[in-house]
Give the backbone structure.
Amino acid sequence: MSSPQPAAAPEPATGRYRVRVATRTAKAFWLVAIVIIAVLVFAPAFASRPMLQDLILVFLLASLALCWNLMAGYAGLISVGQQAFVGLGGYALFALIIVGGFDPLLSIPVAALIVALLSIPVGTLVFRMQGAYFAVVTWVVAEVFRLLLAQWRELGGGTGTSLPRSATNDMIGLDFVAELFGVRSAAAREIIIYWAALFTVVLVVGGCYYLLRSRVGLALRAIKDGEVAAQSVGVSTTRIKFAIYLFAAFCAGLVGAIYFLQTSRISPDAAFSLLDWTAYIIFIVVIGGLATIEGPIIGAILFVLLRNTLSGYGPWYLIVLGVLGIGVMLLAPKGIWGNFSQWTGIHLFPTRRRIEIVSQASKDAR
Amino acid sequence: MILRLAGVSKRFGAVVVADKIDLDVARGEALGIIGANGAGKSSLFNLITGVVTPDAGTVSLGGRDVTKVSLRNRCVAGIGRSFQIPRPFESLTVFENLLVASEYGREHGHRGANELCGSILERTGLAAQANTLAGKLTLLNRKRLEMARALATQPDIVLLDEIAGGLTEAECHELVAFIRQLNQEGVTIVWIEHVVHALLSVVSRLVVLEFGRKIADGEPHAVMNDPEVRRSYLGIDDEVAA
């Protein structure tokens, strides 16, 4: 497979045909998006710490949800084992810091790379299964990692461990941020983590959109409609699905590393939690809208809002989430954004290519 | 020889869909295949394209043995194919259906995909539907799309499976003219068709299948007059008639 090209780039008008992807709404949205990102980058200057913490969670959950959506909504890969890569990301980070003595901030991308490398043999194994079996195997693999890492004495075994204060206190950029915002080192650390999470979600949204607009996106939609037909026009279906799986693992690794750097504490049960890293993620995608880019982002915001509102009600929190999830699946299976988009025709991340025959005159001239 | 089948056999349980079939197709040839329903015509295409692998025998493409080569790689090697029961990518538009094929087919990753797809759309009469979702097409246009998508992979050899059924006389003329022109442009054609008059106005050679066996192969009119073909395919028993 040659590298994905943004085949969507508007063709020069010299040809007889012109292909458009962007819509007017989408162009306007890009301006808004740049403003939103700029505001978010400078948010630590005016937002409260709880606000930043919520935003970190939104960014990380949205990143995971976008990846799960890419797999399930586009590549037809239903994984219930993404917690394997979140957990591995967290443990890789802790190992790099505690065992390797690396800088926490630099350890984040390294941890994600380690996870991506590990996902190659894991993927080779789980890709031997299809459909429901694939789902079950991904979950089994995650359990195996949970049990394996519980044996790692240096990282606290089954009870887990915390990051040493000395390690987190001389993170790269800490003094600079502390001075810039006039805050203490704990708050400065959170600001750096906030930026890392923001960077991650921008990377994932950008990556997903680039992928879906490229020829890979076309191939993914073709695979979903008919695998044999896709292969018979030259699409290497397994290779594309594997690439998506790898990308999702890398992103999950990033999320895990950032999340557990923020909590400074890790345990096998938290790192490899099916509920936190897969069940909630599926909820987010279903609520927001499967097979859209906007949906998982909206779902993540809604999820964190719900969590904050309902956190005082104990088990009612989970019951409300469950009822809401079932309700959306039954009444509005396309999710919030899916229905909104169908109703209004608005796509903020258009991928549909429209061809126009430029003019009869130029056609005759050729 | 662009395509060569040597002793290709395939059975599904008790049903023999291909029985020691030998078939040579020369580069640039236009070959027709006829046979009653269930004679193994579409199965032959599945064997050639790699949807199913034969129990015995070999398939070679341009002198290279591709018997164990995947469906996807045979497309990249230059085989294009239309499915008898159309399999459009329903959530893509007609244009996007072609675009996938042209981006991933034989010349994958090439420039000028938009131009190629646009011109195929016009030549196959789908230009007006270019931005329609393939899932919303009529059966007739779905069949056109099958052919158009196969061509968008830029194949050396294209396998067409019953694309003329249900066309009006005028549409049929257009189709015949189009396929003839394709053939003149150097594309090798293998065409399964029940609309025999359309087929005969394009192909220079005709193969007849019966229960997975090749019972005739040669000049079309000679083949159509062969007593066994008349009995098997047309249901005319010359001895009884005499």
